[in-house]
Amino acid sequence: MNTGRQAGTDGRIVIVGASLAGLRAAEALRDQGFKGQLTLIGDEPYAPYDRPPLSKTVLSGWLPVSHTYLPQMRDIQAEWLLGVAATNLNLSEHVVELADGRRIPFDRLLITTGTRARPWPDAEQMALDGVFSIRTLDDGQRLREVLAANPKRVLVIGAGFTGSEVASVCRELGLPVTVAERSAAPLAGALGGAAGMVAARFQRANGVDLRCNVTVLALEGDANGHLRRAHLSDGDALEIDVAVVALGAVRNVEWLLSSGLAVDARGVVCDGACRAFDANGIVLDDIFVAGDVARWPHPLYDGQLLAVEHWGNAVEQAETAAHNMLCEPAQRKPHRPLPTFWSNQFGLNIKAVGLPTVADQIVVTQGAVERRRFVAAYGLKGRLVAAVAVNMPRSLGIYAEMIQERAAFPPRLNAPDGPEELQVRPSGFPAPGQSTHSPVATSTGPGPGTPPQPAGGPDMNGSSDPRVPSGPTSI
Question: Which keywords fit this entry according to its UniProt record (predicted)?
């Protein structure tokens, strides 16, 4: 039996999840002297590729799908097991079980299984010709071909970052597009209602038919299985031939639910060194986690477990995990960079640093909203916790420093482009039960001992069924 206790630069390391985090971790392991056997397991048949362009430059036609494959910095001399999913983790035997029946032993394991697109809850409606999600290389290719064929009207279900980016591409292509968002404003789950109202103005100014506080109840096809109509919660029926389901992400944890790890629908719990916890709250020295599937404590946010679905975090956490998998205990380093994320839509470059979703207040500190060039700071109980820049990305450096220093909110910058008087407003994040589609970076609760949520049940944003109209939950 494999004991799983061989450390240092020898033995066998298995990485489950052959995308961005898995690839960068593998490269870091080799760069830091790992000489043993390295195996990468991925459920898709493709080499690692870049996902962010799929909802932006691929859809617009600026970048072909074939150009989204990630550059491999070096020959990692790995065994690649692609196109086969992991179905179970046997901790006692240190074995990963695959869908094709193979059992892959390991000394150390890194979990980087990431997320997948949340599907439309009705499988028959999701199967209609003309209904798409946007997460995989195949999704991007198919949707690009359909948009290039000039459909009559596109419906985007969900106005998080992905949905808003798809809507932006549709307008660039001159396509009529309707966006249905169950909360009061686009991007409300990621940036709050106050910023979301600004986003709504920009979307409508660019010709988007934006429907907020509205839910798509059903997608209807014709006798040949082609999408033809969408029924909304306000009683309206839209004639459409393309629908893009952009309801956020589901963490790929089902294969781990009986493993004995601390895992639920919110992700896999790990410590600051990326070591996984078991279900009893005991940290494991040979199981590590990185990327979108991880939940870990950040010292700036009072030990709350963060879940960050973004490119930069996946790379940094993978590199930290790789270092800690090889080093002596005294040399471990924590993963504690500030969350950052960005989006390009409707001629806007939106970049954020920190954790906006925990904030209770927001204030514009530089620039002006009407000029489409500004910075907004976010505060929680008198402390600066995040900042978002619109068409001013270079301004965020000073805010990152202040967040790290736990600076007071509202921040006093004395910036020459600052307003004469700071107008502090409520941040307007949806209350629990008012589900939104794309928080991107959020707190998921304290510690591994929190009551678990079953995968497939209510997610961390509220109702598991996106067709349920938003609204406060009853007590």
Answer: FAD, Flavoprotein, Oxidoreductase
